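Re: [ENG-882] Designed sequences occasionally contain unexpected residues at chain ends

Forwarding the minimal case from QA. Structure tokens:
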């Protein structure tokens, strides 16, 4: 990667890096209860086209312990309500390379 890349990206800068073949995969993630990053990896071109809409992720990833066992007491998730999907919209201000 080039020296002019800084820690944070704009959508335009990400597009430039993808077109230059310097970035080919983008990870979209959220922290779980243990602080681990959980999410999905996208082809970078696909990510750029989906960026405004975000992606769906199962709410299960937000309410499971280190062994991926579902935890009780969360209104968002549980066997009583099911484990639905959440819309996760990327914040490029929190992105980095």
């Amino acid at each position: 990667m080039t020296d002019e890349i800084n820690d944070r990206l704009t959508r335009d800068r990400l597009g430039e890096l993808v077109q230059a073949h310097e970035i080919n995969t983008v990870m979209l993630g959220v922290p779980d209860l243990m602080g681990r990053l959980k999410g999905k990896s996208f082809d970078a071109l696909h990510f750029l086209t989906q960026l405004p809409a975000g992606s769906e992720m199962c709410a299960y990833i937000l309410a499971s312990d280190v062994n991926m066992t579902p935890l009780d007491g969360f209104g968002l998730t549980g066997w009583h309500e099911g484990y639905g999907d959440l819309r996760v919209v990327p914040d490029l201000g929190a992105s980095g390379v």
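QA comment: On inspection the terminal residues look reasonable. The CA atoms of residues 17 and 23 lie 6 Å apart. Proposing we downgrade this to a documentation issue.
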